[in-house]
């Protein structure tokens, strides 16, 4: 049973005022967990840690892997989908990503959005990035078909900075983090439809992340059915000092996976 393999850390915050929440996030203090009661997946927790995760790892992940459920309203999700489908519907799903990191996907970048969706993107960027951090102009749109999945990887430091912020459209999914050093510390993160995740610093650099395929889409003992999933991802500009010291020597210009 998966419940024997994982110990669960659950933070329940009964009431958080909007101003305090956004101010604390903008200062990059410990992120609270906000739980949804409207998703098709019945779970009141966002993170599950396996037995190898000590207190320091748990604290680090909870500080560097924010999940906000119901960040989008149903109307906002439909607004994004309507615009995305207009420019991505002509593309075919691909099964031969250059480094085999993604299977069953189509993707694009977008720098200009309609007025309503521009406000949504700005809301994501204002929450995820402090005032002194520059978001990358182009927003990455990644469309996974129902059978698609993202294999374990760390996004290249050559193309994006310390923070990744992603909206989840159309489907719930499970993200799995594994520490790169020991390969034993694992964290499952439940990404519900219309949620926002913000991954930064240790979670960004010291752990691989992947989106589990439908057959393996378990959050502990809970099966999380995966449908077609679109993620809208904002990143900040790279840190030049990390680029200079990076061991990532790939000459491929794909910015999303190492």
UniProtKB/TrEMBL annotation:
What top-level branch of life does the organism fall under?
Eukaryota
List the InterPro entries: AlkB-like (IPR027450), AlkB-like_sf (IPR037151), ALKBH7-like (IPR032870)
Q: Which Pfam families match?
A: 2OG-FeII_Oxy_2
What's a single GO BP term from this record?
fatty acid metabolic process
Q: What cofactor does this chain's UniProt record say it requires?
A: Fe(2+)
Chain ranges of the Alpha-ketoglutarate-dependent dioxygenase AlkB-like domain: 110-233
Which cellular components does GO assign to this protein?
mitochondrial matrix
In Swiss-Prot or TrEMBL terms, this protein is called Alpha-ketoglutarate-dependent dioxygenase alkB homolog 7, mitochondrial-like isoform X2
Q: What is the originating organism of this protein?
A: Diaphorina citri (Asian citrus psyllid)
């Amino acid at each position: 049973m998966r419940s024997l393999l994982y110990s669960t850390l659950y933070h329940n915050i009964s009431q958080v005022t909007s101003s305090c929440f956004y101010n604390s996030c903008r200062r990059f203090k410990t992120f609270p967990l906000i739980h949804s009661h409207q998703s098709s997946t019945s779970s009141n927790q966002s993170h599950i840690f396996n037995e190898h995760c000590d207190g320091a790892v748990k604290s680090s992940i909870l500080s560097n892997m924010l999940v906000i459920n119901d960040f989008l309203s149903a109307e906002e999700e439909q607004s994004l989908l309507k615009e995305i489908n207009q420019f991505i519907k002509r593309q075919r799903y691909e099964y031969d990503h250059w480094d085999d990191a993604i299977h069953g996907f189509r993707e694009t970048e977008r720098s200009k959005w309609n007025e309503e969706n521009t406000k949504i993107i700005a809301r994501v960027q204002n929450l995820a990035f402090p005032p002194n951090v520059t978001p990358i102009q182009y927003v990455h749109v990644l469309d996974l078909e129902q059978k698609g999945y993202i294999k374990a990887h760390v996004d290249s430091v050559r193309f994006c900075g310390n923070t990744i912020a992603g909206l989840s459209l159309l489907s719930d999914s499970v993200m799995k983090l594994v520490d790169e050093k020991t390969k034993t510390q694992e964290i499952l993160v439940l990404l519900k439809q219309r949620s926002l995740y913000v991954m930064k610093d240790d979670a960004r650099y010291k752990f691989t992340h992947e989106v589990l395929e439908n057959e393996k889409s378990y959050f502990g003992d809970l099966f999380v059915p995966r449908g077609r999933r679109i993620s809208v991802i904002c990143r900040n500009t790279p840190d030049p000092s990390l680029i200079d010291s990076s061991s990532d020597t790939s000459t491929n210009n794909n910015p999303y996976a190492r």
